[in-house]
Design goal:
Shape: elongated
Structural class: alpha+beta
Helix content: 40-55%
Number of strands: 7
Strand order of the largest sheet: 3-2-5-6-7
Largest sheet: 5 strands, antiparallel
Radius of gyration: 21 Å
Order of helices and strands: HEHHEEEEEHEHH
Length: 136
C-alpha cells in the first residue's frame, strides 16, 4: 500500500522513464529538466513522480532540440540504446525538424561553439608569444 507499490502498478515514474529511454544520463538531470518545465506530459507541466503509461504524449526540450513523442512502452531499467528506442515513437515532423537543426549546426562548424574555461597549453603559448611581442 506504499506510494512505490502504487507506482509499479500504474506505470513508471516520469524521471525514471526519461532516464531509461536515454534522454538524460542520470535521473537527477531528468528531475531538473522536469522541474524546469522542459518536459510536458500530455501538454502540461508535470512532476518527476508522475506515472507514465503507454500512449502518453511527451514533449521534451533539451538545449535547442525538441522531441515530440508518444510512449510505447515502460521500463524500470536503463537498457542499450537500440532497446531504449523501442520505448517511444517520435512523430515524423519532430524527427525531421530535429535532424534539420543538427545538420545546420554541423554545417556551421565550430562557429556555434563558444570556448570557455581555462586556456589549454597551446592557448597559453600563444598568449605568451603575444605578450612578449607587445613588450618589445
Amino acid at each position: 500500500m506504499s506510494a512505490c507499490g502504487a507506482d509499479s502498478d500504474d506505470g513508471t515514474r516520469l524521471d525514471k522513464w526519461l532516464w531509461a529511454a536515454r534522454f538524460f544520463k542520470t535521473r537527477q538531470l531528468a528531475v531538473e529538466a522536469i522541474n524546469g518545465g522542459k518536459v510536458q506530459v500530455n501538454g502540461q507541466r508535470s512532476k518527476p513522480g508522475k506515472a507514465i503509461l503507454p500512449g502518453t504524449h511527451l514533449i521534451i526540450h533539451k538545449g535547442s532540440l525538441e522531441w515530440d513523442l508518444v510512449v510505447k512502452g515502460v521500463s524500470r531499467q536503463r537498457r542499450p540504446a537500440p532497446e531504449a528506442i523501442l520505448l517511444y515513437e517520435e512523430g515524423e515532423e519532430s524527427r525531421l525538424r530535429r535532424q534539420e537543426l543538427v545538420r545546420e549546426r554541423r554545417e556551421s562548424g565550430n562557429a556555434a561553439q563558444v570556448s570557455g574555461g581555462r586556456p589549454n597549453k597551446r592557448d597559453r603559448r600563444m598568449i605568451q608569444r603575444f605578450t612578449r611581442k607587445s613588450e618589445d
